[in-house]
Design goal:
It is built from 9 helices and 16 strands. It is an alpha/beta fold. It has a domain of 176 residues: Rossmann fold (3-Layer(aba) Sandwich). β5 and β6 form a beta hairpin. α5 runs parallel beside α6. It is globular, with a radius of gyration of 20 Å.
Length: 326
């Protein structure tokens, strides 16, 4: 039994079932035993999964090209800043080096109090802790985590008011037995961004769904990953594997609009990459000093366009619009 399993088991024995949000937060971000806090590398061939940021240098070159276009659109301000949320191993630092670069993670790094530029959030929102909710007997009920020789789901009292409000705002009317994830932390991060950003863009890359598309996930979208294998049992071995939940792009768009963040583009990652590479026909991304390196870059581009490119979406929001009336 892992140390984190013991910690959470004992917590449940003392006080009863815990919220899934508490479980996911501990599994990913416990200071000692959390998945993203342990002394291991979860990325790449020897890890548990790939992200687009591991496909370097092609991904970095194309993202820098897209942000450079936004920089020019803003009039090339001298204080232009790129804030990367979920910066991880700082793999984008070189690509964004022509501007002031501020890496931010949940454990360290702070967003500037006021700035102009771009917030770059690549697979950030999907890793924030979420509430798990079921619609049963005509009402939303929080799903908690109990212990019965292993971690198991347990029905709990009615969901909190702010959770119910999120579901009513951003999801269609529910069917009996449907499961949902509620990402209140994502909305809180948007609020922090809107408060700090004087002018600029929020550039989000993630996997998720819109309000209409959410009906394709009647059992919710929680998933765990270990050694490049997906597993729906998110309660097993906390701290030993990644846990994610699909992002509600409807929530990001509509709450963003309330905060004055206007949607500019919502598209697949492939469309964003094609637009970034179009001006020079991908010459900068594919330029290499050896044939072997050029081949490697071409394979990276193929993986981005035809693999992740169709799975991931990009949402570009512009700051500076009027806030919606409350």
């Amino acid at each position: 039994m892992s140390p984190l399993t013991e910690i959470l088991r004992d917590e449940i024995r003392r006080a009863g079932p815990i919220s899934f949000r508490r479980f996911m937060e501990a599994a990913l971000y416990d200071p000692v035993h959390g998945y993203y806090r342990r002394a291991h590398d979860p990325f790449g061939k020897q890890g548990d999964f790939y992200t687009a940021e591991q496909i370097q240098p092609v991904f970095g070159i194309l993202m820098a090209a897209r942000i450079r276009a936004l920089y020019q659109e803003m009039g090339a301000p001298p204080d232009f800043t790129v804030v990367e949320l979920g910066a991880g191993r700082r793999e984008m630092a070189a690509a964004f080096s022509e501007w002031r670069y501020v890496p931010v993670d949940l454990a360290h790094g702070e967003m500037p109090e006021r700035f102009r530029g771009v917030v770059f959030a690549n697979e950030f929102f999907d890793a924030l802790p979420v509430d798990a909710v079921a619609f049963r007997d005509g009402g939303y009920r929080e799903m908690r985590v109990a212990w019965d020789d292993r971690f198991v789901w347990a029905a709990a009292p009615p969901a909190r008011e702010e959770v119910v409000d999120y579901l009513r705002r951003y999801f269609p009317p529910p069917a009996e037995g449907a499961l949902f994830e509620v990402n209140l932390d994502a909305l809180a991060w948007l609020e922090r961004i809107a408060h700090a950003m004087e002018a600029g863009f929020v550039f989000t890359i993630d996997y998720g769904y819109t309000r209409a598309e959410s009906v394709r996930f009647p059992r919710g979208a929680l998933m765990s990953y270990r050694r490049h294998h997906a597993d729906e049992d998110v309660l097993c071995d906390p701290g030993a594997k990644d846990i994610t939940a699909h992002v509600s792009f409807t929530a990001l768009e509509e709450h963003g609009a309330h905060l004055g963040l206007q949607t500019v583009r919502f598209e697949t990652l492939a469309q964003t990459l094609l637009a970034a590479g179009e001006p020079d026909q991908f010459a900068a991304a594919l330029a290499a000093s050896t044939p072997e390196e050029e081949l490697r870059r071409r394979l990276q581009l193929k993986s981005l366009l035809f693999g992740m490119g169709e799975t991931f979406r990009t949402l570009l929001q512009k700051a500076g619009g009027a806030r919606a009336a409350k």
